[in-house]
Design goal:
Length: 375
């Protein structure tokens, strides 16, 4: 469990590192950590590869049981096996949800800033996108519930929720989630909740609350998207799942997949089961490391006059207000100094950038040293 030794990924066709190949720019943009995955996952993959036969594979019953046990232990959520639909990626789940709920030209609502596929999925599904800005208050972000409800029309059928939220890092609390459920009930909305970062809780005492578990009576109006990819750093293997308690909604979701969405591959299933069955020691050390990196960021940005940071309650992503550098596109200022971040315009909020601090402290400190002149 070495989270401090930098790893050379330059020869691995890494999207993260290839973006700036040949340039002296540290890539801290896409949500992909520079840490080795748990030994248990690597060992499970090696054992499966040693078998030597790699045919079409169904999700093993043991994986389903591992997901059920993990959800019960960590979220107090009892998932029926029939609710689970396996997917090769969470983004496919967002697009399928848009295709599943409502009809062409209906509306999909979400809150900005938001993970870019949320903004693209409705249009790709012949749905119309509605957005409502989150409210920035001091060093945090909140819902504008009045604006959210005012935006809803008779054609609004689906609310896309990011929980915990990417990029602002909020882990929505019980009161906020209850208000969202109440609004969805009043307007008969389905909520598709992207919970992919739910095991990366950094604030002390937090416990993830899936909507379907918080209010079982509302569960029939939910699609919950989960994946081991972010937490255990196995995104490249491609294994996600949708949890859909309502049989009719689930059947329509599966119908939209037919002939388009590929099956999950056998190594992804293997890695996912090993992740959900891991003893937790690696994960605990990861959270400690991410908290330490978050503290490094807090110390650095506290001394900045021009850059303001939203320190996340969850995720390994920091949301930076850089409008003092450029109110539209401050990213080139960082790239010119050798640090590659994510452009806030892609998330629906110009003037901001997102920084991935899922890396050794040495890498993070080197990046901050490079941009010292921007403070």
């Amino acid at each position: 469990m070495d989270f401090q030794t930098p790893i050379d990924r330059s020869a691995t066709s890494s999207q993260k590192w290839n973006k700036y190949a040949g340039q002296d720019i540290l890539p801290m943009w896409v949500a992909d950590m520079d840490f080795v995955s748990p030994v248990s996952i690597v060992a499970a993959l090696q054992e499966r590869v040693a078998h030597g036969v790699f045919g079409y594979t169904d999700a093993p019953d043991s994986l389903v049981e591992a997901v059920q046990a993990y959800a019960a232990q960590h979220y107090a959520w009892q998932i029926d096996a029939s609710w689970i639909v396996w997917l090769p990626g969470l983004v496919q789940g967002l697009n399928l949800a848009c295709r599943t709920v409502g009809e062409a030209d209906d509306e999909v609502l979400t809150a900005t800033p938001i993970y870019p596929p949320f903004l693209r999925a409705p249009g790709l599904s012949n749905r119309n996108l509605l957005t409502v800005p989150l409210l920035q208050k001091n060093d945090s972000w909140e819902w504008d519930f009045a604006a959210l409800e005012a935006a809803i029309t008779p054609k609004t059928k689906l609310l896309l929720l990011c929980h915990p939220h990417n990029p602002v890092g909020r882990a929505w609390n019980t009161q906020e989630l209850t208000q969202l459920i109440a609004i969805a009930r009043r307007h008969d909305l389905i909520i598709c909740s992207d919970d992919i970062h739910c095991d990366l809780l950094l604030a002390e005492g937090l416990k993830h609350q899936p909507l379907a578990a918080l209010d079982p009576g509302f569960a029939a109006q939910t699609i919950t998207l989960l994946a081991p990819s972010k937490t255990w750093n196995i995104a490249g293997l491609g294994c996600s799942l949708a949890v859909i308690p309502d049989p009719s909604l689930r059947a329509n979701f599966c119908k939209q997949m037919a002939g388009i969405v590929p099956s999950v591959n056998l190594l992804a299933f293997t890695a996912a089961e090993a992740a959900y069955r891991d003893d937790g020691a690696w994960h605990a050390e990861l959270i400690t490391t991410l908290r330490q990196n978050r503290d490094i960021l807090l110390d650095w940005f506290t001394g900045s006059d021009r850059l303001k940071i939203t320190l996340p309650e969850a995720t390994y992503l920091a949301w930076i207000d850089a409008r003092a550098l450029d109110p539209v596109n401050p990213l080139p200022h960082f790239e010119a100094l050798g640090v590659g971040l994510s452009d806030g315009r892609d998330f629906g909020l110009p003037g901001f950038v997102r920084l991935n601090f899922g890396c050794p402290a040495e890498t993070l400190k080197a990046a901050l040293k490079r941009i010292e002149s921007l403070r």
